[in-house]
Sequence to fold (352 residues):
Amino acid sequence: MSQNNTFNNNQTGAPTYGQQGQNPYNQQAPYGQQQAYNQQMSYNQQQPYNPQVPNRPQPNVPTPPSGNNNKNIIIIGAIAAGVIIIGLVIALIVILNKKDEEPSTETASRNTREAVTEEVTEDITEERVTEEVTEAATEAPTEAATEAATEAATEAATDATTEEAKDSAPAAPAATVDGLSDDLYSEQVSIDGKVYHLPFDYSLISDEYTFDMADYGYEGGYVMNPEDKVTSTIQLENPNVDEDLDFYVGFVNTSGEAKDIKETSIYSVDFDITWTETTNYPSVVLPKGITWGATLEDVKAAYGEPDDSYYSDSLHYWSYTYEDDDYDYDVQLTIYEDRGITEIDLSSYKND
Fold:
């Protein structure tokens, strides 16, 4: 109880440790009797932290230049830069003046090359123009001569062709043959000056115009029964006429018994001289003198308008067909614009 009073009555500090009269912390004064912090030795008055350590040698640091020295350096540098710039300007002016006064070697070389090139070009151009003029002068008469020769050759060939065509052209319409009727439907025709009436016996012309049934696959001949017919597919040949003459006939057996074809009659004849190269072909004349070479006008003047007609645009010929009222007999004519009649085809059906 008394101890507590002691604690309470101590207003200046704490009671001693355990009241044993000892000073805690190495016999220092009681906590309450110590000097205040502010009463202790100030920081500046304390001893250095390690006064025992000897001073170390300090490095030899150069003393920085003062402000005046820096200004002097800047001024000197500016003066040096100005001198360099002035020198460069002077050198540039000298170089430019030198270039203006004396052209460089490269410029002189280039000028020389241009002059030489221009001279060579002029020489080449003059030579080429000369060659072209020479060629033109040479070709002009050559072309003219060639054209003249070509025209002359063409004209000569044309004339020769014309003459040949005239030589091979059919003769003009012949005069009326004695004994030949003027009636187209009379079934009469003149062959080499002889008048024949369709149908007529083959024996009447067999001496001049022949055929061989072996050419048609009948080695032993061909037998025809009464009233049998073979259409115009048998070609008659004559070694004395143009080999390109086409002369086809049709056969009919008008008798009452079977006979060999060569013993029968011809009911149709077809003469075609379109492809012949000479005038060596038989003379064929129709009533009113119509024959090879008769024109379209000649035919119409003799027989009037045809019962049927056809025109070939590619070959330029007309095909005229005339028939009697009973259709027992017909005449077909091929008439070229430039050659007249070149084909005569006659057929009689009265024995049908």
